[in-house]
Amino acid sequence: MRMTSKIRFISLLTSGLLLLYPLAAQAEEQDKPKSPQAPGDHAQAAALIDVTSGRVLYEHHGDEELPIASLTKIMTAIVAIEHGRLSDNVKVGKSAYGKEGSSIYLHLGEEMTLENMLFGLMLRSGNDAATAIAEHVGGSEEGFVRLMNEKASLLGLKHSQFQNPHGLDAKNHYSSAIDLAKLTAYAMHNPDFKEIVKTEVKQAPNPNDPWDYKWINKNKMLRFYEGADGVKTGFTKKARRCLVSSATRNGQQLVVVTINDGDDWNDHRKLLDYGFDHFPLMEIIKRGQTLQSGVVAGIGFKYALTPKELERIGKKLVLQEENELHFGKRGELHIMLDQKPIGKIPVYKRGSIPPIPKQYQQVYSSGSMRPDWFTSFQHVLRSLLFSGD
Questions:
Q1: Which of 46, 48, 99, 217 is the most exposed place for a label (fewest CB within 10 A)?
Q2: Cis amide leading into 231 (omega within 30)
Q3: Which of 73, 151, 182, 202 is catalytic?
Q4: Which stretch of DSSP H or E encloses residue 112?
Q5: How far is CA 192 from the centre of its chain?
Q6: pLDDT tens digits, residue range 340-359?
Q7: Which homologous superfamily is 43-278 in?
Q8: In this structure, what are the phi and psi dihedrals at residue 100, rounded to the nearest 5 degrees?
Q9: What Gene Ontology molecular function terms does this protein carry (predicted)?
């Protein structure tokens, strides 16, 4: 009888604990930080990224490897800008002339500056321009594709592979929404790329007719979304409607990517609004800010955050012994959100900060895409030695 009472007591105690468990789990769930409610999208895959910090603010099937149509030309343009010379004349060869798909109707043997051809590439999505650019910059289309894939590897784009410079459907030619967001955010730090993709109308000399070429940008976002400043449309039968758009408000630039989205213009508007409304770009550290006695921040650090997230930012100063070979560098400041690393910046002995060119102040705040100190130092030397190039 006594044993039966004990069993009954244990059974009642266990039942009580089980009843309390959902309440405890619910309380723990309520204590977790909540992200603002995203508007969603109609795409097969989508991503929203802050350009300055590189933070992905929203994604839906973001790593899915998919055909991307003419969004390919974002990579084509940045590779051509970085490896070519904009003033060079590009000659249209047989492979480029009459290339299938969208075209700017270049003539066989026609010559046009690389700069103007890039406008034709990005505003009108000229496949003939893409092929001509690839052959000029890479020596051949195959050589240029190799440069494209090398760039993808350098940027850490693990879900991207390119087979051509124009984006016509091809086996093993794909990317993902997050990879395209990262690529575009990177490209937007290049002033030439940035100028091209924000242009609504471009005129260029036409050697074949008495009138100039006139190219009107296919990207409707430039005309109906306040602050829109890029970047590329795309379509093939396999990839369907693809779009990358960007906009800048209050000093913050965001990029949205959608792949296979039948309502892309509206989805981009909603996702851009969501990013600007909930994740403003906040300055965490200022360049030259004193971190401790005699030690200052080498570069500024900004990050897209909700106001509540700002309260959960942590910092850890990691110092090294002074060494003349380090050019005044004393270590790094590690920056965390909810104890997870989101970036790090070099710190220097006061008065020793190198003159880093503006475009390298903060290319990315976290991940393999952010240049390390040595890379930044190389950029300093290059800017000083080759500024007239």
A1: 99
A2: yes
A3: 73
A4: strand 111-113
A5: 16
A6: 999 999 999 888 788 865 54
A7: DD-peptidase/beta-lactamase superfamily (3.40.710.10)
A8: -65, 160
A9: carboxypeptidase activity
Hey, what long-range contacts does 289-296 have (CB within 8 A, 24 or more apart)? Answer: 290/350, 291/317, 291/333, 291/347, 292/317, 294/349, 294/350, 295/319, 295/330, 295/331, 295/347, 295/348, 295/349, 295/350, 296/347, 296/348, 296/349, 296/350, 296/353
Per-domain boundaries in the chain: 43-278, 281-385
The answer to whether residue 125 is catalytic is yes
Q: Parallel, antiparallel, or unpaired for β 89-91 and 111-113? A: antiparallel
18 versus 93: the higher-pLDDT residue is 93
Please tell us whether the domain made up of 281-385 is placed in CATH 3.40.190.10. no
Q: Does the annotation count 73 as an active-site position?
A: yes
Catalytic residue among 53, 102, 103, 125: 125
Tokens read off for 321? 């012994």
Q: What is the pLDDT of residue 356?
A: 67
Q: pLDDT for 152-187, tens place per residue? A: 999 999 999 999 999 999 999 999 999 999 999 999
Report the percent of the chain where pLDDT is more than 90.
75
**Which three-class secondary structure string do you get for 27-88?**
HHHHHCCCCCCCCCCCEEEEEEEECCCCCEEEEECCCCCECCHHHHHHHHHHHHHHHCCCCC
Contact 114, 136 (CB under 8 A): yes
Rounded to 5 degrees, what are φ and ψ at 71? Answer: -65, -20
